[in-house]
Amino acid sequence: MSDVTLRGALDTLKENGVRITPQRHAILEYLVTSKSHPTADEIYKSLASTFPNMSVATVYNNLRVFQGVNLIKELPYGDSSSRFDFVTHDHYHIICTECDKIVDFHYPGLEEVEHLASHVTGFQVNAHRMEVYGTCPICAGNVTETH
Amino acid sequence: MSDVTLRGALDTLKENGVRITPQRHAILEYLVTSKSHPTADEIYKSLASTFPNMSVATVYNNLRVFQGVNLIKELPYGDSSSRFDFVTHDHYHIICTECDKIVDFHYPGLEEVEHLASHVTGFQVNAHRMEVYGTCPICAGNVTETH
DNA sequence: TAAACTAATTGTAATGATTACAAAGTAAGA
DNA sequence: TCTTACTTTGTAATCATTACAATTAGTTTA
């Protein structure tokens, strides 16, 4: 399935007149297939074996390009580096405050909040962001997860 | 009213055995009275006239202390510095993507989302964050605000 | 009140993510 | 092939935030 997703992403680039370079392809592929929400540095390091000469700047540049065409979203955190998430359907993130794990979960959507916010503030609303914080089962010790 | 809020905040500090220094008082007061959502640097600059010798480190240190006792929240963004918001009741933020203005709005609460997230992922949920993005009336040109 | 101890502040250096920029490479069209 | 625009690369610069050691202030105890 991620094959389809990747192809769609490449199409989006084409449609927007963005050249598909090997580096871009690789970065996109990494974002799609790795289920994680990688930092720029993680992407950089992961692709280092395939592209020994790739610059970190390239990663950042292209992450920005991808954001520009709404393929990915930046998830900024206070202390460390931003993480990047491939945009798929309506899903939200729940984040473990102990181990920083990010897990996706689906939710019907919060258009209602957008409407209310728009109504109350007079803004034209484009998007929203929402995250839930807590302790994951492993950190909570509820689960014998390993082995 | 912000008088009451400030006093409450000071009480919270006392209860948690946090010493109330002049700097802390001033930083808190600034957070309470300024309706904005200031960055650490804005706080630092604003208090520079009153505390010419105060260090940026002090601002950061104390913002962390205040976070520790849940008086304020950090709002991290991707590009620039984090902003800090005095925690009051259930309110959310709507952010203008053009001028970066942050406006508060109330919403009944999203416990439902927390419950669902907890149920689906097995996390113990503590908190959530939610923000709406859009264009404010002034930037949208809908309003003859100034004169 | 003074001594002893603890907490807070200060100044500055260090860190680390991100960006700017110039040079070199690459693709695409005329 | 020549020209032009776009990308990548390498590296230096920026900027927010933190670490840390030295100093100061507050609190406790005798």
Short overview:
Chain A is 42% helix and 21% strand. By secondary structure, chain A is α+β, with helices and mostly antiparallel strands. Chain A folds into 2 domains: 2-86, Orthogonal Bundle (Arc Repressor Mutant, subunit A); 91-140, Ferric-uptake regulator, C-terminal dimerisarion domain (Dna Ligase, domain 1, 2-Layer Sandwich).
- Chain pair with largest interface: A-B, 40 and 40 residues
Oligomer state equals: homodimer
Give, in spatial order, the strands making up the sheet with the most strands of chain A. Answer: 4-3-5
**CATH architectural designation of the largest domain in chain A:** Orthogonal Bundle
Biggest sheet overview of chain A = 3 strands, mixed
Give the structural class of chain A: alpha+beta
Helix content of chain A: 40-55%
Number of DSSP E strands of chain A: 5
Strand content of chain A: 15-25%
CATH class placement of the largest domain in chain A: Mainly Alpha
How far apart, in Å, are the first and last alpha carbons of chain A? 28 Å
The fold-level CATH name of the largest domain in chain A is Arc Repressor Mutant, subunit A
* Number of distinct helices of chain A: 6
**Segments of chain A where pLDDT lies below 50 for 5+ residues?**
none
**H/E element string of chain A?**
HHHHEEEEHEH
Characterize the overall form of chain A.
globular
Output mean pLDDT of chain A. 84
Whole-angstrom Rg of chain A: 17 Å
CATH-defined superfamily of the largest domain in chain A: Winged helix-like DNA-binding domain superfamily/Winged helix DNA-binding domain
